[in-house]
Amino acid sequence: MNLESIQRELQRAGLDGWLFFDHHLRDPLAYRVLGLPMTGHVTRRWYYFIPAQGEPQALVHGVEPHVLDALPGPKTVYVRWQEQQSGLRGILGSAQRVAMQYSPQCAVPYVANVDAGTVESVRGLGVEVVSAAELIQVFESCWTPAMVEMHLEAGRRVDRIRAEAFERARRETRAGSAIDEFALQQFIMGRFAEAGLITDSPPIVGVNANASDPHYCPVRVGSASIQRGDLILLDLWAKLDDPQAVYYDITWMAYCGDEPPQRISEVFNVVIGARDAGIRTVQEAVAAGRTLRGFEVDDAVRGFIAARGFGKFFRHRTGHSIGREVHGVGANMDNYETHDERTIIPGTCFSIEPGIYLPEFGVRSEVDVFVEEHAARVTGESQTTLCLL
User: Fold this and answer.
1) 48: left (phi over 0), alpha (psi -120 to 50) or beta
2) Whole-prediction pTM value?
3) Beta carbons within 8 Å of 153's beta carbon, 6+ residues apart
4) What's the confidence (pLDDT) of residue 347?
5) Contact assessment for residue 226 and residue 180, using Cβ atoms and an 8 Å cutoff
6) CB neighbourhood size of 220 (10 A)
7) β-strands 376-378, 362-364 pairing
8) Bridge partners for 254 per DSSP
9) Are 29 and 48 in contact (CB under 8 A)?
10) Cα 368 to the chain's mean position, in Å?
């Protein structure tokens, strides 16, 4: 835990402090920010308050009095529920406005780890509770230089495997051999293992109408075969096998033939144009030093697609935060599933991945964008034309 940095951010945000709470290991974000291991028995509620100025204080249960011993500051021990409430008032002191892992209307579900009853208890003490979502971004979503390098290396390996997967599909379909979505997915998983990459779940391999399911997952029995004239969507995400490694996440499209139908080309070009509109929105704002929020990027991308008559076929947010989990806890590019007002800040990465999902086929293009102090860049290869296999 970097106490000095936390207190500096609290002062910058005009907050009196940050109140952490956990019960039965419900809030992994608290453990990460505080530098605590998520191990052992946590069967009683604990609280840890970091004021904007001064010494942190802990409130722990008498059954588990040592749960926060690794953290600085004095601790109060409670046993009865009445002592818990008075102890909470004691560690909060004169604080009037504190952050917690709470999100109004659950607009940012990744951060909403504190139950409503606990929020009510704090408010019952006359303390205003605000969301810690922006603070979490600073301490959980900002990458170190080493994390950036691991992301870039994962990208080089994933991009290479993606090309190999398309080449495998090209050879098999041109030879008239039998290959299906599941077989191609397993080929990719094998190559991930050989390349030292790990992932939380297998990649998406979707053909034709299956590519219209944004989270389609082929199964061993019953997957669609891949043949000449088919459209293939590959969505791959993986990272290096290191505790601090962060994900690389992309989606590419290919057509098994020499000339795609005009309708496929039309939709593909709209998706690429929308993706690039999102990239430009980010790059121009960062270069100008203008505050940019996640929903604004979604608006730019969604507006591009809607203006071309495909608005109702874009059925998910434009992009998500990327970190040690493929869906990170930073700002999402979203004004569709949620209204994400979090600021896009330097040191963070997110996907831009518009899609158009028609009944007969779907198209998506996904890149990762990393934001620096005065610039933003796509971190890997970027598809501009449909791969012809």
Assistant:
1) beta
2) 0.92
3) 240
4) 97
5) yes
6) 10
7) unpaired
8) 232, 387
9) no
10) 11
Share of the chain above pLDDT 70, in %: 100
Q: CB atoms < 10 A from the CB of 103, how many?
A: 18
Place of tokens 């700002």: 331
Report the alpha-carbon distance of residue 290 to residue 298 in Å, rounded: 17
The whole-number pLDDT of residue 178 equals 81
Count of residues for the chain? 389
Phi/psi of residue 87, nearest 5 degrees: -65, -40
Neighbour-count burial for 255-287, b at 16+ CB within 10 Å, e otherwise: bbbeebeeebeebbebbbbbbbbbbebbbebbe
189 in Cβ contact with 158 (< 8 Å): no
Per-residue pLDDT tens digits for 225-284: 999 999 999 999 999 999 999 999 999 999 999 999 999 999 999 999 999 999 999 999
Domains, the chain = 3-140 (3.40.350.10), 142-388 (3.90.230.10)
Query: How many Cβ atoms sit within 10 Å of the Cβ of residue 97?
Result: 14
For 12, other C-beta atoms within 10 Å of its C-beta total 12
DSSP 309: T
Q: How many C-beta atoms surround the C-beta of residue 194 within 10 A?
A: 10
Three-state secondary structure of 334-379: CCCCCCCCCECCCCCEEEECCEEECCCCEEECEEEEEECCCCEEEC
* Two structure tokens written together for 141: 């979503």
The predicted-structure confidence for 156-205, as pLDDT tens digits, reads as follows 999 999 999 999 999 999 998 889 999 999 999 999 999 999 999 999 99
- Predicted confidence at residue 40, as pLDDT, reads 81
The C-alpha atoms of residue 232 and residue 183 are separated, in whole angstroms, by 13
Report CA 373 to chain centroid distance, whole Å. Answer: 20
- The CA-to-CA distance between both ends of the chain, in Å, stands at 51
Give the DSSP H/E element, type plus range, for residue 59: strand 57-61
Calpha distance 34→25 (Å, rounded): 13
Judged by DSSP in three states, 324 sits in coil
